[in-house]
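Protocol step 4 of 5: obtain the predicted structure for the target chain.
Materials: sequence only (see below). No template structures provided, no constraints applied. The aim of this step is simply to have a reference model before the mutagenesis design in step 5. Sequence pasted as it appears in the construct record:
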Amino acid sequence: MVSIKKYTRSFFVLILIFGACAKKKALEKEPIFSKLVPKQTGINFSNDLIETDSLNYLTYAYMYMGGGVAAADFNNDGLHDLFFTGNMVENKLYLNKGNLTFEDISKTAKVHGDSRWFTGVTVADVNGDGFLDIYCSVGGKYNPKENLLYINNGDLTFEEKAKEYGLDDAGNSVQATFFDYDLDGDLDVYVANYPPTPFNAPNSFYRFKSKTSTDIESDHLYRNDGNVFTKVTDEAGLRSYGLSLSATVGDLNNDGFPDIYVSNDFSSPDYMYINNGDGTFKEQLKEATNQVSFYGMGVDIADYNNDGLLDIFQVDMDSPDNRRAKANMASMNPQLFWSTVNSGFHYQYMHNSLQLNTGKLNSTPSFSNVSRLSNTSSTDWSWGPLFADLDNDGWKDLFISNGTRREVNNRDYFKKLQNVKNFKERTLELTKKIPSEKVDNFVFKNNGDLTFKKANKEWGIEYKGFSNGAAYVDLDNDGDLEIVINNIDDTASIFENKSSKTNNFIKIKLKGTKNNQFGLGSKIEIASDNMRQTQELTLSRGFQSSVAPEYNFGVGKSQKIDSLKITWSDGKQQVLKNIKVNQLLTLNHKEASELEKVAEKNTEMLFSEVSSTIGLLHEHEENLHDDFKEEVLLPHRTSMYGPYLSVGDVNNDTLEDFYISGSANYKSGLYLQTKDGFQRKNNSIEDDFKYEDMGSLMFDADNDGDLDMYVVSGGNEFEPTSEMLQDRFYENDGNGNFNKVFTALPKMISSGSRVVQADYDNDGDIDLFVCGRLTPKNYPAPADSYILENRSTKNSIRFVDVTDTVCPDLKNLGLATDASWADYDNDGKLDLIIVGEWMPIKVFKNKGDKFVDATNIVGLENTNGWWFSMAKGDFDNDGDTDFIVGNLGLNYKYKTNESETFDIYFNDFDKNNKNDIVLSYYNDGKKYPLRGRQCSSEQIPAIKSKFKNYESYSNATLVDVYTEEDLEKSLHYQVNTFASTYVENKNGKFILHKLPNLAQFSSINQIIPYDVNKDGNLDVVIGGNLFGSEVETPRNDAGNGLLLQGDGKGNFTAIPYHENGLLINKDVKDMALITVKDKKMILVANNDDFMQVISIHEKDN
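Step 4 output (structure tokens):
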């Protein structure tokens, strides 16, 4: 009987274990969110708008900005309550009664407001009594406009005291944020104001107002002076004019002082105010970022990639849906775009910006916009972004509130309004006819690799409507974060989160100092199972909303927190170890201490810029040429591919010199190295300054012991038959003096890019391959590339075009950008590998007397990309030649996947004897023209006749617009991948490996293989960017240069610049290794800018 009992008990235990596991797995598959309804929660707040003759969109254009929501525990009972602002309805305060049920106490609490148009709301303990107060921003068409401050009496009643505290700001406010900017221990406040401005105000207006704004038009900073707040806007250097839609605080440069990011609508530039630490701020947006959003709305600041640096997410109004984008969204016109840039503002594009913090230069943080890489660039008309770990896996996810009550950018409707009679008398009628469409919000799961995945359906957060303010908060104290949303013309949305049932967490509350009892401005860093997370406590986030003053960290399956460090705003710190998960932890400022300040280690970086040290100040100037004038739908400028570099000892003094090419009508530069640096040498090559110089090559053409010069001619400025496209050859006299040899080269009228050398026929001299880059003014018509056989004699330098004989496939090869001679199959003969735009990675095998196309044989047939560069090396130490190939990158508007390509068609679609460019992309499985009706019809006017309005064009597929017959007759190229790639050689077959995402930020224009850290394995230095995109496509400018550290096995670790000192973030077109004073350095050629010299500080392992 005992054994039977024992067996039965064991069997029962196993059943329990398996049952528990099955239950947990089932929970993990269920959506982690469920939508609660008013009947469950008792929350029936609805921000209803009542349009009238005097108040409608056509009389008040800010009608649909909506209201906000604040989460806070107003009675200190341990449960978070909710406060909603109403535009035309009363504000509501709901007391949390537990179990996700709430009671409306607005009237008894005396916070329901009056007739004001309430916008944003934030909370803070303004008077230091331990109870959270409510600060409401006020806007609207009518007075009164003063903001209201509800002081918490501690008994669930409030008293309005904005005027008494000096916070009755009347500046048409949208939001405010409380923070201790001067670190004196109390809370100050920044108020973001949106001065009513005509939507069609020109940039000259914003430029004028930026210098002449009145006090009421400016944002305001108020210093806490005890029982009153003093306006110190001017003293702090913050007087501004901007259409401010949010102001968000965070320590962006990790210096211990809180900084401010102000997001502004329209052309008015954003402001990034870096705290100087002396009560003043310095605006550094253009120094810190390369581009921002055009219609900047809400912002959140958090460390989304767990590197300890705060990142910035800003939303705009770019739709991911083809129909909505083409029917409802404003297009970027070039005149407005360049007017904004030339007004001194910034490069502003209509898409969301995810500014990844890449470190700092001195006190200035540096950011790269990676919204395209992260899959978060386009979320329709968006308002409030929120970073929060919604599934408790340790990575901050992203929620974005979305929607506008009426489609006020509907192109067709507002075009009709231009001809309406009695407009002023009919504004209500006409407003109600503006189209309206409910749209869903967006929630993205953080993949942990800098990218996100849309997760609305998977997670159960689905709601179509018109959402504005939103906040995250743990309403049921179970360790995960609910989402609360303020909607127009609908009840507020509450999504219950159940992720704490599957993933662990730690919650932290703070007991701060007397005048900052909730510890705003503190920073907590935790480590668990090799994952590090950082959060800062600031409450105003997203749009018009405020979160609760507590920390919530998800830690996945970790069973403990290995370490936790809190840094309070006054610099005091406390460190805890081995903390249990799934608990609420309270940290007290009194238990923190002044830690000894450890001087920052002056770690020697691997790279440093030494341009000025060695006295090299060469500036490349790009000639003015409007590529888009004749090629309206050109995807990017084709006249600004230079400058290029070549290196060699031209005067035989054992010191390496270099040549940098010049654009058309600008001189190139030949620099001779001296013991003191570099000296520019006048030379006959400069006489050919009217050419557009591209790639060049220093090599000994005639075996006389000195280096001659080959210069490729190119550009898009000239006609396809122009003599200005003829390459040139210059003979060296042995002392670095060059003379042009007119008979050295065959006639080659082709716009080229690079030239590469090899003795491919093993006859003892150097032969050449020249890349044909484009046919001017006929993009993407293929260009001719050439193989030039060296048939020079002692008395005559001569190259012969043998392309037709040895490799006829090079005629009309495509848009070749780079090439490499390499014996990829180790048969003793040099093969030719070529890359280009719209081309696969082409491999031509050397058969001895000719080259044959082996691309398909080696497995590279589906590799079409926008390849800009390549470099060879044995990166896995297996004895053969591998390649790194630089592509457009994954942070661009253009996208592909395994089943969907990005295409171009070239044909005379409108039969006017001129070929037209048509770009196409996939959206929800269908193929559409990339460009909208307006710009497409500028190239083909008949489109406006065929599609009478924007709505019809927005639904038209590629075939609908251009017909299947014409598309089939077109020159047609496709792209399979835009990813930069490591091409591994496996016994003469190639395997592609995508480079790390840090290497996909931008296009890679040059690659330098070099063992930087002297560990015996090849590393790779990359540089690039593409500033010449058309204005509806944000330029590729996120590349800062990157070191890819190789392990000798074909794996690469990306080392960002703040860890190694390599910063080359301009429009890098070429790089070259050079030895200067026995040190290896990298020359960097930047388009339309000064070149750079980067010194490599080699270290022995």
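Step 4 remarks: The longest strand covers residues 353-361. The mean pLDDT is 95.
Proceed to step 5.
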